[in-house]
Amino acid sequence: MRKLLLFALAGALATGANSQVLKVTGIEKIAVEPTEETALIAGFSPAGDYLLLTSPSKQGLVKYDLTTKATTTLTHAAGAGVATQISDDGKSVIFRERSVNADHLVFTAVKSLDMATLQSRELLAPTRELSAVAFDRNATAITVDKGKMKARALRGGNAVQSRPVIANVNLKLELTVDGQTTTFTPQGEEHNYIWASISPNGERVLYYVSGLGCFSCRLDQSDMRSLGNLHAPQWLDNETVVGMHDEDNGVYTTASAIIAMTLDGRQQRLTDDKLIAMYPYANADASKIAFSTPEGETYILSIAKQ
User: Are 217 and 223 in contact (CB under 8 A)?
Assistant: First the structure.
C-alpha cells in the first residue's frame, strides 16, 4: 500500500511566505503501475474522486478510482485523451474518436460515456472540421463543428448553452459565445496559441502564446494579465491558475515544478526538486492537483487556499 507522504512546506516551496498562494497539506502517489495506457492525465473529476488516464499518444481512456484504487478501461479510441471533458456532476464524459479513411484523411467523431453504465453513444458523426467539445450546465454536451455550436442534453431536460467555449484550430484560437464563433488572437494572428481554457465563471480566457508566454484576459480581450512563462496552464479557481516551469536539454525534460499563480502576479512553487512534476490538473473545488512525471507516474497534491 502506498503511504501518504506529507510535505514540509518550508522545504517544498521555493518562494517566501509572503508569496504563498496555497497551503500544501500532502502528496500521494496513486497506486497504479505506470503503463503505456496510464502514462498521462486526461482529466480530473470535479469531486476529486477519480482520474482519467491516457497514453502518450492520447489513445484510450482509463478511469482510476481514488477511493477503491481500481482501474477501469473506458475506451481504446484514438484521440480519446485529447481535450477530454467531464460533466459538473462527474457522471458523464465526452471524448473524441479519430479515424483515417482510405484516402488517408483524418476524421474526428465525438462520443459520450455514461460513467455508471460505461455505455457510450455518438454525439457527432466523424467530421474533418471539429474545433471544440465541452460540457455546459445540466450535463449538456457542446460541440463546435464548421464554426457552429450544437448542444445536446445527455440525461433528459433542456440543453443549456450558456458557457463560452474556446478552441484551438491550427494553432489559433476560436471563441464561441452564444452560438457565435469568432477568431480569438489577442496577441496577433502572427503568433501560435496553445493550452487555452475558460475560467470556471465563464468570464476569462487563459492561454499560452509561443515565444511570448502565458496570458489571461476577459472575453472581450480587455484586462490583459501576463503570467510569465507558465506552461500547460489550468484554472484552479477564477483568480488562480496552476501550471509548470519545465527545463529540457533539447531531447528530454531535465526538471519541472508545479507552480500556482494568481492573476495579480503572486506565485508559489508547489513541488520540490525530487520530482519532475508536469501537466497539472485541478479538481473543481480546488482541493487537489494531480500531475504526471516523465516515467508515467501520477501524484496528487492536497491543497487549501491561504
Answer: yes
101 by DSSP, 3-state: which?
Answer: coil
Distance of CA 99 to the CA centre of its chain: 23
Element (H, E) at 132: strand 130-136
pLDDT tens per residue across span 201-236? 999 999 999 999 999 999 999 999 999 999 999 999
pLDDT band of residue 73 (cuts 50, 70, 90) is: very high
Q: Which numeric CATH code is attached to 9-305? A: 2.130.10.10
> Going edge to edge, which strands form the sheet with 172-177?
165-169, 172-177, 180-184
d(CA 254, CA 294): 10
- How far, in Å, are 23, 268, 283 from residue 20 at the CA level? 7, 6, 20
CA distance 82 to 236: 20
**Residue 14 pLDDT exceeds 80:** no
Per-residue model confidence (pLDDT) at position 184: 97
- State residue 2's pLDDT score: 35
Distance CA 66, CA 256 (A): 25
Residues 6+ apart with CB under 8 A from 302: 24, 25, 26, 27, 28, 287, 288
User: In a 3-state reduction of DSSP, which class is residue 26?
Assistant: strand
Domain-wise residue ranges, the chain = 9-305
- Contact between 301 and 288 under an 8 Å Cβ cutoff? The reply is yes
Mean pLDDT of 112-120: 96
Give the contacts of 17 (CB within 8 A, at least 6 positions apart): none
Please, are residues 111 and 123 in contact by the beta-carbon 8 Å criterion?
A: yes
0.85 surpassed by pTM: yes
